[in-house]
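*** Fold description ***
***
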Amino acid sequence: MVIDKKLRDKNQHLKEKAEKIKVILTDVDGVLTDTGIYYGQDGEVLKRFSIRDGMGVERLRKYASIETIIITGENSATVKTRAEKLKIQEFYLGVKKKEEVFEIIKKKSGFEKEEIAYIGDDSNDFEIMQLCGFTATPADGMNFIKDISDYVCETKAGYGAFREFAELILAFKNNS
């Protein structure tokens, strides 16, 4: 997504938030996936991920030295495999209170809340989103999450919403 000068000027508050970001935290189901899970008789079989979101992770790392950290309530081998494929070094599975992981990340990294971005879509993201410096949700995120988000993506979950948020951050950071 290319952000033109008019949009950057119009969204000065987003620019100020994006310029400070040093790490992005993301939920999985409803952000990196389209909220669908395929089950077989032995449990979870498949989740659908967007290649575009994966490129967003890579571009953040390459062009802004911003790492991505996954925090999900699911304890899914599929998520672990996806994180490893994307060279995401830090991921938290089976998390019930994401705000507690936020505090761990903050303490471990030394980052201030203004330097941490988060993209989520549902009630299990609400508390952590209150703590982060820059927040977003996919176009099909829950309305109460849209209400507290700094940015609502035009793209739906699992179809490049993470990439859209990543490109927004990159555009603002690289076009200061």
In short: The two ends are 17 Å apart (CA to CA). The chain has a mean pLDDT of 92.
